[in-house]
Amino acid sequence: MKQAIYVLIAISLLSSCVSKKKLTQLQASYNELEAARDKALAAANDCDKKVTGLQSDLRSRETELATNMAANKTRISELEAQLGDLRKNNNSLIDRMADLSVVSKQGAESIKKSLEVLNEQTKQVNNLNQSIQRKDSLNLALVMSLKRSLADVNDQDISVEVKKGVVYVSIADKLLFASGRYEVNPAAEAVLAKVASVVNDHKELDILVQGHTDVVPFVNNQLKDNWDLSVLRATSVVRMLQGKFSVAPERLSAAGRGEFEPKDDNATAEGRKVNRRTEIILTPKLDQFFNLLSNGK
Fold first, then answer.
1. Which residue of 41, 121, 271, 280 has the lowest C-beta tally within 10 Å?
2. For 89-112, how does the pLDDT look when each residue is reduced to its tens digit (9 = 90+)?
């Protein structure tokens, strides 16, 4: 700004003794300085907006983490209470044995088996407690990783959440497909690339892709109904994850749910818009999951 003022002063002082051409050049220099200042101010304002957005996202994620931790703490307390009850029953049986002056061979064997069952139940509760904590920690880390990777995508077009103990990535159909089509839009490839990058880092997970539609009937020469459309959209996403982003095919499954698993009310345009989606569901491999529950490893 000071430089611009100096230029004006120079123009004023020299206007009487310089040529018109020289004066025009000085005026152009002044205009360039003004434009550069305006551009710098606009860039600073844009930077402030981005910082505000990042701060808001950080607060949201901190709240989500605190909520999950509180839920885990409650679940652990419930399991510990069950374990305490089992220990009380165990101690009660031991006290009863000590009080008995004569115990038949059959009665002693029965008590022994009861104690073995209680000890096994205690071990299972401990293993289940550890498994739940590991699974919840994995899901939370996975959700945070996906949200960071997809931070530049409009929140109305994509969501990441934990439901029924597994991670769901829900993508609006308007982002993935043209109306009535099942070929993935070129612009959506970047979104699938980010999801693939995360799942490729988690080899212990299987990937189920589910297509969903609204209730508006769809028919053309190739497709009979919404079942066909939802299935073909799911297989299009699966093929791209495998063929273009190197997700192992043995980890992938494709399914179509048609209009039969809505998230919102199909009676409204906004509800139908929410229901038209493709979900990428990340689940533990079944064999590893059962091993986790049975062995606590």
1. 41
2. 777 777 776 655 455 666 667 777
Report pTM.
Answer: 0.57
Could you tell me the end-to-end alpha-carbon distance of the chain, in angstroms, rounded to an integer?
A: 67
Task: Find the largest Cα–Cα distance for the chain.
Answer: 128
> Residue holding tokens 């115990």?
103
Domain boundaries, the chain: 2-57, 153-297
CA–CA dist 176, 101 (Å, integer): 77
What's the pLDDT tens digit per position in 230-253? 999 999 999 999 999 999 999 999
Superfamily the domain 153-297 falls into: OmpA-like domain (3.30.1330.60)
Residue 170's contacts (CB-CB under 8 Å, 6 or more residues apart) are 158, 159, 160, 161, 263, 277, 278, 279
φ, ψ for residue 252 (rounded to 5)? -100, 145
Instruction: Count Cβ atoms below 10 Å from residue 69 Cβ, excluding itself.
Output: 12
